Amino acid sequence: MSVQHDAANQQFTTTRDGRAAELAYATPAAGVIDFTHTFVDEALRGRGVAEEMARVALDFARAKHLRVKTTCTFVAGFVKRHHAEYADILA
């Protein structure tokens, strides 16, 4: 699965089996990214799609030296489960 970054629409997206998924974000301040919403088509749920998008998005934030906020409950839970891996980039 390939996750694309759509900077113009502030989201990470992927399509699998013709079904879409997205992880939206906002940039509320310089140097800060806030992951605001995750949507995965019902047919794709339970297949690790949201987790893959979260990893790609968090890796993007780290590469760009951004501090991360997690308004999205899915991303907040993901970061909590993998706290040791992402604690250094949390706002």
Any descriptors?
91 residues, alpha+beta, five-stranded mixed sheet, 3 helices, 31% helix, 35% strand
Describe what you observe in this structure:
The protein has 91 residues and is of the alpha+beta class. The protein has three helices and five strands, in the order E-E-E-E-H-E-H-H. It has helices spanning 49-63, 73-81, 83-86; strands at 4-6, 11-16, 19-29, 32-40, 67-69. Strands 1-2-3-4-5 form a five-stranded mixed beta sheet. Strand 1 (4-6) and strand 2 (11-16) form a beta hairpin.
Structural class: alpha+beta
Largest β-sheet summary:
5 strands, mixed
Number of helices: 3
Task: Give the helix level as a range of percent.
Answer: 25-40%
The Cα radius of gyration reads: 12 Å
User: How many beta-strand elements?
Assistant: 5
Shape: globular
The H/E string reads EEEEHEHH
Residues in β-strands, percent: 35-45%
Mean pLDDT: 96
> What spatial order of strands do you see in the largest sheet?
1-2-3-4-5
| Stretches with pLDDT under 50, minimum 5 residues | none
